[in-house]
Structure prediction request, 125 residues.
Amino acid sequence: MKIALIAHDKKKDAMIALAIKYQDTLAKHELYATGTTGTLVMGETGLKIKRMKSGPLGGDQQIGSMVAEGKLDLIVFLRDPLTSQPHEPDVSALLRLCDVQSIPLATNVKSAEIMLDAVQNGLKL
Prediction:
């Protein structure tokens, strides 16, 4: 599977913890991430991740382009719903593309755990 990892600034620690918890599962898949998230997760886990630009600098749009082209199977996007994001239109566009393309999208830790448990157990999403 091709899996993208994205996290707003206040959710990066949660993404690192999630990646550590599911490190063995994630290591079996092709991983992509926005810039800072990818750098932090790689540093803590050693996972091989293809990094895009930082979200506010176009990384969300790069991931969105991959969704539009059918190049991703799952996205874990830990969003911070309590902080205004300067690139909110990009975030909304990415969420819309996932809905249009029927790409599974986890936007919080619990939904990410459910989806990654499914992947871990060999279920096709």
Summary: The helical segments are 12-21, 23-26, 35-45, 59-68, 88-101, 109-120. The mean pLDDT is 95. Residues 88-101 form the longest helix (14 residues).
